[in-house]
Design brief:
GO molecular function, one term: transferase activity
CATH superfamily of the largest domain: HUPs
CATH class of the largest domain: Alpha Beta
CATH topology of the largest domain: Rossmann fold
Protein name: N-acetyl sugar amidotransferase
Largest sheet: 3 strands, parallel
Strand content: 5-15%
Number of strands: 13
Distance between the termini: 34 Å
Number of helices: 14
Keywords: Transferase
Helix content: 25-40%
Structural class: alpha/beta
Strand order of the largest sheet: 3-4-5
CATH architecture of the largest domain: 3-Layer(aba) Sandwich
Radius of gyration: 21 Å
Organism: Desulfovibrio ferrophilus
């Protein structure tokens, strides 16, 4: 079955991977209707209209509608709700009472620092290690810890992780899938081991507006995302787990990547909450807060490849390829992600956002290209062969020897 085979849902055409064949852009921000839940559609993922961002009859995306709703929120009442939640979990015996997953970037820094210093909690931070640390990423992790926090750094088996990353790149064009799975599952596992009943995350799904049934009042993670049943058919990096031994990966190697059993998590009493539900969050303010209070450093190159910002996703040499493969599969990249959010937060006009997207979206992450090829054991020709095989026909066209987007935000 071809990657580009089309299915029809109702009267709308969708690609096999669930993307609308008619590309549209939000009339308020620069978001595309190709925005998919997580990072992008994969060939082993069942397509659903609920998985991508939804535009209303006025051409406005659900994320922009959330930000309109956000202006009506009584933040004092939300903070009182937060205080009640924290009071239920706060401990007086010196043990940890909240877990904050993160890399030491602006969001996790803001979350951990404010919980500790404003709300008198005793946080434990936990980090799922990047594929390959950048210099600035390592410095930021160390300065985060030295700002006054305890941390567990979980580093997966390097041979297993690089193999899974290569397979995910080859089969799904998603080199970040193994990292994302490990990052998701390490927090509840550590919380259970340390008997911590509260986990706080620094980002918030309604701000990204994914799905036709976005719940603007969602305050906590759906724990089903972190669980599995014994009989569930599991795939990792596009390979059934029973077939992974052919690639030198045994069942016991997979433990860090697999979700917890349903009963273990449901019976643990662990709650997983989003801090931006309770506090009026703005990534740019979090950046300034983290710089002032925790010594956060920005990209020393002035900006990050693929975008105009300098304070997002700095810790991993594979980050750029995560966003670049996202751009290949959906036609929207890191600059779109950044500009859409900054327009919603009032830091950019739509016109400014359009100009930035047109200038930076899809820029190739050349700086760490050789590091990436070495990590996934591929040569350059094979890399581009895989990249080109995943270009959706409704997004890309070839003119001579050059690939071009059929449509871009304007």
């Amino acid at each position: 079955m071809s990657k580009q085979e089309v299915t029809t849902v109702g009267n709308l055409g969708f690609s096999k991977n669930g993307l609308p064949l008619e590309v549209k852009y939000c009339t308020k921000c620069v978001e595309s209707n190709q925005r998919f839940i997580g990072s992008a559609p994969h060939s082993d993922q069942k397509s659903s209209q609920k998985d991508h961002i939804i535009f209303d009859d006025e051409g406005v995306c659900s994320a922009c509608r959330y930000f309109e709703y956000k202006r009506t929120i009584n933040w004092q009442e939300r903070e009182e709700e937060l205080l009640e939640l924290l009071a239920r979990h706060r401990r007086t015996d010196g043990s940890y009472d909240v877990l904050v997953p993160g890399s030491g970037g602006k969001d996790s820094r803001y979350t951990a620092h404010i919980l500790k210093h404003k709300y008198n909690m005793n946080p434990l931070t936990v980090t799922w290690a990047p594929h390959i640390y950048t210099d600035i990423g390592w410095r930021n992790l160390i300065s985060w810890i030295h700002s006054g926090l305890d941390n567990i750094l979980y580093t997966p088996n390097g041979q297993v992780h690089s193999t899974l990353t290569r397979l995910a790149f080859e089969n799904l064009l998603h080199p970040f899938q193994p990292f994302v799975l490990g990052q998701y599952n390490v927090a509840p596992r550590v919380a259970m081991e340390k008997d911590i009943k509260l986990i706080f995350y620094g980002d918030f799904y309604p701000e990204k507006g994914i799905g036709s049934d976005v719940d603007f009042t969602q305050k906590s993670f759906d724990t089903r995302l972190f669980t599995r049943t014994e009989k569930q058919d599991l795939y990792l990096s596009g390979v059934h787990i029973n077939d992974l031994p052919r690639h030198g990966i045994t069942t016991r190697d997979l433990h860090p990547y697999l979700p917890l059993e349903v009963n273990r998590l449901s019976e643990s009493g662990i709650e997983m909450h989003f801090l931006p539900y309770y506090l009026n969050y703005d990534p740019q303010r979090a950046y300034y807060y983290s710089t002032e209070h925790t010594g956060f450093e920005v990209n020393p190159d002035g900006r990050t490849e693929g975008t105009y910002t300098k304070y997002c996703s700095l810790d991993d040499k594979v980050d750029g390829f995560h966003f670049f493969t996202w751009f290949i599969k959906t036609g929207r990249g890191r600059a779109t992600e950044d500009a859409a959010l900054e327009i919603r937060n009032g830091h950019l006009t739509r016109e400014e956002g359009v100009a930035l997207v047109q200038r930076y979206d899809g820029e190739f992450p050349q700086k760490y290209f050789q590091d990436f090829l070495k990590y996934v054991s591929l040569d350059e020709s094979r890399f581009w062969e895989i990249i080109d095989s995943f270009r959706p026909e409704h997004i890309w066209k070839r003119e001579g020897n050059e690939w071009k987007l059929r449509q871009q935000v304007s």
